[in-house]
Amino acid sequence: MPKTAGIVLVGNEILSGKIADANAAFLCRELRALGVEVRRISVIPDEVDLIAEEVVTQSTIYDLVFTSGGVGPTHDDVTIEGVARAMAVGVVRHPRLVAILEGYYGARLNDTHLKMAEIPDGAELVGGEPVRFPTILMRNVYILPGVPEIFRQKFEALRERFRDAPIHLKSVFVRIGEGSLADHLNGLLADFPRLMLGSYPEFANPEYKVKVTLESRDGAYLEDALAAFLRRLPAGALVRVA
Amino acid sequence: MPKTAGIVLVGNEILSGKIADANAAFLCRELRALGVEVRRISVIPDEVDLIAEEVVTQSTIYDLVFTSGGVGPTHDDVTIEGVARAMAVGVVRHPRLVAILEGYYGARLNDTHLKMAEIPDGAELVGGEPVRFPTILMRNVYILPGVPEIFRQKFEALRERFRDAPIHLKSVFVRIGEGSLADHLNGLLADFPRLMLGSYPEFANPEYKVKVTLESRDGAYLEDALAAFLRRLPAGALVRVA
User: Fold this and answer.
1) Same fold, A4-162 and A168-241
2) Residue spans of beta strands (DSSP E) within chain B
3) Which CATH class for the A168-241 domain?
4) pTM given for the model
5) Which CATH number describes the domain made up of B4-162?
6) Where in chain A are the domains?
7) pLDDT digits (tens, 9 = 90+) for B63-116
8) For residue A197, which of A208, A184, A209 has the smallest C-alpha distance?
9) Nearest by CB to A13, which of B110, B181, B200?
10) Do the Cβ atoms of B40 and A42 come within 8 Å?
11) What is the ipTM of this complex?
12) Nearest CB to B203: which of A147, A167, A199?
């Protein structure tokens, strides 16, 4: 059974246009390469109720859920509380996280810092090395930070957990428009109903008019579909296959 | 009553990591500048049921909904059908859109092209000039294309419809970390409960450690909160205000 995933960006700063997301874009690329199908990205405000509601929904529907953001020490960092509420558990301090914070802050350690030792009750710590701080995993929900450099470091430490059968991709670039192409795509889908088929026009591109993507977890099926599609194309329509 | 908005990106190509979103990031910036509060971005697959479900939810909760993508002539362009299903209406061809397509394609016009004349029954056409093709508005749902250049052109033709009371913003850059800052932020929120307050650490930035954002629709309230925050900061902590 192919793995599915959902992404929850806890992101007032994205919704208010202050920054553009980098984490979901990174995660979609990485998970696809690992063979995991991302089915939803939700960007929601830094509000406990909304986080809880979204995590309940996504963690029920998808195999994996990744949250990004809202895990620092300030008032607007409420992701841990949101995930805990989603799972109907309390928030507790994890002794290993407390020890890491003690090692890092020493005598300067205060209650604000210790907020970063909080986890939903029952969560586990995963992927602690070579990254200093491990990732909090609550059931199927990986709680990741919003800062892109740390988000990536933490994901890298975990990535092999998520590897599934690969999704093979072929891209066909054509110099005819979607209006001429649509019938060929429909015919191809009729013959290859399990094919994942995308059609992406590029109006300002001098090289091609449409990029057609063919994808499948079955490499032989994909090759057959690609050959059938190339046979269907009118003479001269093909620019290249990649 | 401040206007709220939701954004639905119909985007297999985003979920599969083939492209990074540009439209939601653009729309969040533009709407914020107009005084509209974006409350959710959902990126979902090109599937009629999922589009319908998301549009039902968002159009009920928010004042405005914007969809992006899935409006071309090919098999994976199912946004019109999804919005129609959300509103429990059929799909019909609009005579004005048919006429525009006839003018554009002439004798080459085929049934595939005519798919682009389809609207949810009861939708209106808005913002047709100076853009060639008007935008389809179904109740409070603006149906926009995924191609960024056209998305922006269409939004520009509509933007003054969305203008609301502005949201004022002040950014305070400080050279102390969130661990030292959190108490000051909590104290500020206790005194100014209607303040929108964000705290964004930058670990790799040589100039400052945290960017604090203060926002309000009330300019005088914001100025008072800013003055109170600056008084709270320890000596030497302030880098600059912008």
Assistant:
1) no
2) 4-10, 37-44, 64-68, 91-93, 118-120, 124-126, 135-138, 141-144, 168-174, 196-201, 210-216, 238-241
3) alpha beta
4) 0.94
5) 3.40.980.10
6) 4-162, 168-241
7) 999 999 999 999 899 999 999 999 999 999 999 999 999 998 999 999 999 999
8) A184
9) B200
10) yes
11) 0.94
12) A147
